[in-house]
Amino acid sequence: MATTATKVENTIEAKLRALYDLQKIDSQIDKIKQVRGELPLEVQDLEDELEGLRTRLVKLKEEVKEMDKNISDRKNAKEESKALIKKYEDLIKIVKFNREDRVVNEFNLTDCVICMDKFENGDNVRQLPSCRHIFHPDCIIKWLKAP
Asked: What is the arithmetic mean of pLDDT over 13-27?
């Protein structure tokens, strides 16, 4: 009987060990299922983040393209302005100021309306062709170049 009792004890012990091992395996399977269940959510979050970054990249590229266009437009405008300044410089001839000039006396043109300094006889001045206003050469050029 002692042998049967030890056999029964061994089998009970073996069964308990096997049950314990199965519970450990089952716990590990549960952990794997839990990780596997969370993994698609993490993958989805990463895919959403990646899509957001792609969208942001597209918008940034569009902004860069727009800024490049603005830079180009401003460079063109700057060149056009330089050409106009050159044109006006050529149109506005330098003459000698003379208090006895009929236009000077008629319109009382005795000082530069830009810097407000008085003209002296013999000063170099630039005279606008249409209205005949006069300015110091440096004053009118600075004024034309001002933004």
From this structure: 87
Dist. CA 41–CA 47, nearest whole Å = 10
With b meaning 16 or more CB within 10 Å and e meaning fewer, what string describes 100-139? ebeebeeeebeebeeeeeebeeebebbbeeeeebbbbeeb
CA distances, 63 to each of 49, 55, 58, 117, 146 (Å)? 21, 12, 9, 48, 29
The owner of tokens 């050029």 is: 141
- First-to-last CA distance in the chain? 115
| Structure token pair of residue 104 | 């000077």
pTM for the structure as a whole = 0.44
Q: What is the pLDDT of residues 97-106, one digit of tens each?
A: 776 776 666 6
